[in-house]
Amino acid sequence: MSSLEFNGNEIAPPPDGIQTAVRVRGVSKYFGKGEQRVAALQGVSWDVYVGQLTMIIGPSGCGKTTLLSVIAGILDADEGSVEIFGNDVTKMNDRTLTRFRAERIGFVFQQYNLLPALTSAENAAVPLVIAGWSKSRAIEKASHVLNSLGMGKKIKSMPNQLSGGQQQRVAIARALVHEPSLLVCDEPTAALDVESGRTVMNLMREAALRADRAVVVVTHDNRVFDFGDRITRMDDGHVAEVRDNVHAPAA
């Protein structure tokens, strides 16, 4: 593993032929006021490359999920800028940001957040229905994505009829159904056994290996570190280290 960059130093340009998907510069985020104010992020500058799975690791409370949330537009940065494929999300108004997120960003959450009254296909189709697709067309597209994730026999199953790993695959299908440019995942394997966790990370890695997409995964799970192309280590609101992962599977 070769160290590439450290917080506070100039960010190295991407390797030849590699496009920058996410460009974070000088981002800070604070919670609380006055003496209770806490800096969750402190002047973070960081890049994510297209066609790669980038992992964010580090101890609890170091700012991993906060950084992910700022990138995804769930939280506003108090200072600095975030560009996603050349679009500065920190300058967007609420309406523009909501539309941009719906069209360009996919989310995979630790708790799955599946709607209990909907089938697998209906859950996976939600982003398309919100975007204005007809229900039948959205479910058809969602069923195709579920089938590609090995869930073809579970399309009509309800969430309570699925294992944890199967529920996570539905959540991944929901995140991918609108073909986002950026996929962000918060602890996607935390509640899964080893086999299910590695299956999910294989799916994440397959999703990343495209010339028009990047995948960012926050994880504590050292069992899946080898799936990342680049490993970002955070500590106390800073990016402490970014390194290539020589153990990542070949494309």
Give structural notes.
- This protein is α/β, with parallel strands linked by helices.
- The protein has a single domain, classed as 3-Layer(aba) Sandwich (Rossmann fold).
- Helix content is 29%, strand content 27%.
- The chain is built from six helices and eleven strands.
- It has helices spanning 64-71, 94-104, 120-130, 135-148, 164-176, 194-208, and strands at residues 3-5, 20-31, 38-49, 53-57, 79-84, 87-88, 105-108, 182-186, 214-218, 230-235, 238-244.
- The strands form two sheets. A seven-stranded mixed sheet has the order 1-11-10-4-9-8-7, with helices on both faces.
- Strand 5 (79-84) and strand 6 form a beta hairpin.
- The longest helix has 15 residues, at 194-208.
- It starts with a strand and ends in a 7-residue tail after the last strand.
- The relative contact order is 0.20.
CATH class category label: Alpha Beta
Fraction of residues in helix:
25-40%
Cα-atom radius of gyration: 18 Å
Number of strands: 11
